[in-house]
Amino acid sequence: MTQLALTIDRPTTMPPVRLGGSQWARDRAGGGFEPTSAVRAVGPVQYFTRDRDIYGEGEDAALFFKVVSGVVRTCKFRSDGRRQIDSFHFAGDLFGLEAGSEHSLCAEAVCDCAVVSYRRRGLETLAESDGALSRQIFSFAMRSLARSQKHALLLGCGTAVEKVAAFLVELAAAAPESTAIALAMTRQDIADYLGLTMETVSRTLSRFERDCLIELPTARQVWIKNLAALRNLGR
Amino acid sequence: MTQLALTIDRPTTMPPVRLGGSQWARDRAGGGFEPTSAVRAVGPVQYFTRDRDIYGEGEDAALFFKVVSGVVRTCKFRSDGRRQIDSFHFAGDLFGLEAGSEHSLCAEAVCDCAVVSYRRRGLETLAESDGALSRQIFSFAMRSLARSQKHALLLGCGTAVEKVAAFLVELAAAAPESTAIALAMTRQDIADYLGLTMETVSRTLSRFERDCLIELPTARQVWIKNLAALRNLGR
DNA sequence: CGATTGCTTGATACCTCTCAACCCAGGTGG
DNA sequence: CCACCTGGGTTGAGAGGTATCAAGCAATCG
Question: What is the pTM of this model?
Answer without folding.
Answer: 0.89
